[in-house]
């Protein structure tokens, strides 16, 4: 069924209908569209645009449809164009012509943005909640690994020894930023477009502010032309998901590396690992690899929407229907990934003794020599030079910095004495970095505590949003 037959003498060709049909993917919007419709019927009733009896019948029928959709009794059919036309068919099958009364004062243009916003508010708060669980799993592991000493890398070369808890907690920091982004997005996107009509607003006495309040929006959009054309809220959500994808891809990459035979720093629990069809010994980190891989799709979906939007005339154009599949793909693939990612992180075993063995390798303590000299008043350029000289000696003699003799040290710089050796242990180097952001175990513990507090603050708005939306779409 289409919603626009009146001025045509022929029905649409099958090929056009197949092209424009979106119900096969936008059916996901049904519960949100019904919530928007219930608010719209309320506005029609308040404005005395339709008789109260009709309004009540419409609301009852919409509520019934909500139930029938959730238990599978009502579903789209071949001839439905999109979610909106399928639901109107449902209303008409219950109420006859009276079902069409809902159309007054509303266009699919404001209708679709309303439903899509509600869908995304639901999706983004669910994502925030799932991300918070992943961050918590990282912090739990970080807490257990605070005393593990590992080599820290720059350029994927040994740089300086660090607490492995520090290494794990850093991922929770970027994920907390993502949750904060969702919170910002929520504040900016939470304005109701309902009442914008096709583009110019309505001549009927609707009350958009009241509908907005009923739908849990914090207010009404400023401008109806912008409102039906605006997909910033979609693009921003797709960016946030892409950013999360990038962060998670870096978790995936580290897990893949750490669990390799060469590293041997970690073992993934059997429950979250896969085998090979040909090599019986294999244990693969597929969750980590999919975590790494999914970012490609998320970035592609963001790019696809921005490209659709570029240069697009105002107000509604059918191009805008292309916003949905990209969004559903980004949202759903992320929500599929987060639970096993959390499981993999939570159940991984870390091997502190293996990390510690490689922590001093690659002369990762050379900075300690330079810092020692700086504390003695040597300028950093000279101190750096002297530490470099020590590395050269060790490389030649095939030994570690801690094994340098007193005369070798003095040869590198007259102020360099045996006292430096106290700092040439990985534990000493890690313990000395005590600024709150640093890698000393005490600092890392403090970071973990503060991150947990941040996550728990986010937990408040996340559960508020989730309760609001689930109450609205509950059958
Ligand atoms: N299915 C359409 C979409 O997703 C709904 C809006 C159609 N509006 C219109 N004027 N043709 O964008």
Give an overview of the whole structure.
By secondary structure, the chain is mainly alpha-helical. It has 18 helices and 6 strands. The strands form 3 sheets. The chain has a two-stranded antiparallel ribbon. A two-stranded parallel sheet has the order 3-4. A hairpin with a 2-residue loop joins strand 1 (149-154) and strand 2 (157-163). The relative contact order is 0.12.
| Poorly predicted sequence stretches spanning 5 or more consecutive residues | none
Mean pLDDT, as a whole number? 95
Fraction in beta strands = under 5%
How many strand segments? 6
Main sheet? 2 strands, antiparallel
Please name the defining characteristics of this protein.
elongated; binds arginine; two-stranded parallel sheet; 62% helix; two-stranded antiparallel sheet; 475 residues
Summarize the structure.
With 475 residues, the chain is mostly helical. The protein is built from 18 helices and six strands. It has a two-stranded antiparallel ribbon. Strands 3-4 form a two-stranded parallel ribbon.
